[in-house]
Amino acid sequence: MLSTATVSGMDAQTAGKTARTLELLHSLAYFVPETEKELVGVGLEPGRMVYFAGRSAPLGAPPATVVTATFFNFNPELIASVIPRAWELARPTEVVAARYRAIDAAYVRLFGADVTGSADMAEAAELVSIAAQNIPGVDGRPLYAGWASLDWPAEPHLRFWHALTLLREYRGDGHIAAPSDRGN
Questions:
Q1: Which site among 24, 32, 173, 180 is 20 to 30 Å from 165 CA-CA?
Q2: Are 69 and 143 in contact (CB under 8 A)?
Q3: NCBIfam families, per this entry (predicted)?
Q4: C-alpha to C-alpha distance for 35 and 119, rounded to whole angstroms
C-alpha cells in the first residue's frame, strides 16, 4: 500500500506491517459472505461475477475488454464469461451500493457497532482518507480513478474502507502499469 519511501519517520518493518494490516481490512470484501449476499441480492450471479462486477462497477458498465485490461492478470475468457452479462443483471450503481452495504454488515459483524461507530474509527478513517486523497501520480490507474470518482460515504467505517479501497486499487493498478511499461 504505502511504500517506505513515502512514509517519513517509519522504519521499513513497521511500514510493511501497517500496509499488510490495512490491506486485510480492505480485501475482506472479497471473502466475507455479506458481499456475495448483497451483490446476488441486486441480481448478480454468485462467484466470479460478484468479484469482477464488484471491483469494476465504479467504471460504469465496462465491456469485458476493459475489465480484462484493468485486471490484466486474469484470463480474458474468465472475465468474458461474466462481463458484460453482469451489467444486464444489475446496474453498476446498484452493485456499488450493494458492496457498501456488504462492508457495513461485515464490519459491524466482525468488529461490533461499538467499534465501527467509535471516535477511534472516525480518526482512523480521517487519517487513511488523507493518505488516499494525497497520492501523487494517479494517471494510468483506472480502478483507483473509478473508486476515487465516487462520493465518500458519511459513516466512518465506510469512509475507512473506501480510503483503503483507493490505496489498494492504486497499488493494484501499479502492478499492471509496471509490466505494461516494459512491454510485457
A1: 180
A2: no
A3: SCO6745_fam_HTH
A4: 26
First to last CA, the chain: 23
3-state secondary structure 63-102: CHHHHHHHHCCCCHHHHHCCCCHHHHHCCHHHHHHHHHHH
For 118, which DSSP code? S
- For residue 144 the three cell numbers come to 483507483
The continuous run of DSSP H or E covering 108 comes out as: helix 92-111
Average per-residue pLDDT for the chain: 89
pTM: 0.87
Domain boundaries, the chain: 4-181
Residue type, 72: F
> How far is it, in rounded angstroms, from Cα 162 to Cα 16?
20
Q: Are the C-beta atoms of residues 48 and 81 closer than 8 Å to each other?
A: yes
- Which of 53, 51, 38 is closest to 86 using CA atoms? 53
Q: Output the CA angle 56-22-48, nearest 5 degrees.
A: 30
Helix/strand/coil percentages in the chain, nearest 5: 70, 0, 30
Distances (CA, A) of 77 to 50, 89, 131, 156: 16, 19, 36, 38
User: Per mean pLDDT, which range of 33-42, 75-84, 105-114, 164-173 is the poorest?
Assistant: 164-173
Residue 39 near residue 73, CB atoms below 8 Å: no
